[in-house]
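Journal club prep, notes for RB
We'll compare a predicted complex against what the paper describes. Inputs for the pyridoxal-5'-phosphate case:
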Amino acid sequence: MRYTSTRGAAPELEFEDVLLTGLARDGGLYLPVTWPRLPGETIAAMAGKSYAEVATEVMLPFIGPSPLADEFAAIVEDAYVGFDHPAVVPLKQVGANEFLLELFHGPTFAFKDCALQLLGRLFDNVLSRRGKRVTIVGATSGDTGSAAIEACRGRDAIDIFILHPYGRVSDVQRRQMTTVADANVHNIAIEGTFDDCQALVKAMFNDQAFRDRLSLSAVNSINWARVMAQIVYYFTAAVSLGGPHRPVAFSVPTGNFGDVFAGYGASLMGLPIDRLLVATNRNDILARFFESGSYRSGTVEPTMSPSMDIQVSSNFERLLFDLCDRDGDRVRGLMDGFTQSGAFTVPGNILARANSQFAGLRCSEEDTAATIDRTLSETGELIDPHTAVGLHAAAEARGRGLVAADVPMITLSTAHPAKFPAAVETSCGRTPAMPARLAALMDKPERFDVLPHDLLAVQSYISDRATL
Ligand SMILES: *Cc1c(COP(=O)(O)O)cnc(C)c1O
């Protein structure tokens, strides 16, 4: 399979290079040149197969004939064997036709494991075969760092350095990163804020000599392989509720638009989807786009669903490319306008097309709390604030007649409630029990170094420890 950039000015690449490259050279994001389509019988036959079997079937067409393809089934099997539920992503009924798709059974209790557990293994496989190594560098305000570390720990071809703001992440979040004992994992606590950490990472990527010498790389959310891995659970969930013969709707707690774009990808591959709800918290750039056609960034406001506190939604460019009939020049024009003025507006026909498949819905902090409380009293389920944003959007879409009552509604449950105990406790008066695997972190020794907010200090720390 070949891949093209959303801005039309970067070379087409094969899967393995897209995996290792991340962002295209023209600043765009990679997408397959054509979307593979799965026949109805193939989709129907997914019923009863294991998650790893379906995952292999859905993803193989994106890889194409290659040494990686030959080993792919075994890599996928290994990526999901550590999830603590036999279904990997179990579906739970919470109403007459309402369901939660639990995506938090991976090692760090949040949905990013679903893609990153595979990504780390794919990186390692391709790099080892090529005799290359990378140094992965990232900044975290708490959650993504641990998912990236769990994905890369112990992998031969990777060193990973994660910067977190010293004293500014929760105990559990820090311990999820710092108790990992593998020698290729390096935690750096920066004397500064998350923004300082991010600025340091950006500066390291902008230092071309340093970047080349250390083969810097990232596993961030614009990586195509992350989107690809997330397409899988849209298939497994829909098929277990009668797909492809019966369309289903999904409500997706959204930040960078990677997860909900994967749902769109599933529909392009032939899965009948009634509607995709783009559920945002009060950082609602996407909800405003689907209402008005205007994509305009604001200032980030903190919420109790912090993994969705974004100003710019990077994967949205992938949808824009399709809405512009895959015209890379046009996408580049819109994105350049966005860089200059912080906004662009699409014409009415494009907005109408977007709204034929999506709907954007926002959820206030009050409604998030009320949804956690109501869900507990009506169903006995404790849910995390991100999931609550999704459930609120689902109810709202039903109320507005956007999704008919006979269409099953699947809300993606993106984090375990125990990852956000304070918000859950404030909302419903109950503290989620800490899973044994999280509680065990409290007794393990931690390993991290504290560095000043100083680029040279961080660079020399990394140079000294990366295996080249
Ligand atoms: C990252 C994240 C999201 C948002 O997913 P996107 O792909 O960025 O839209 C939602 N919930 C949780 C818990 C997350 O970690």
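Talking point for the session: The longest strand covers residues 158-165.
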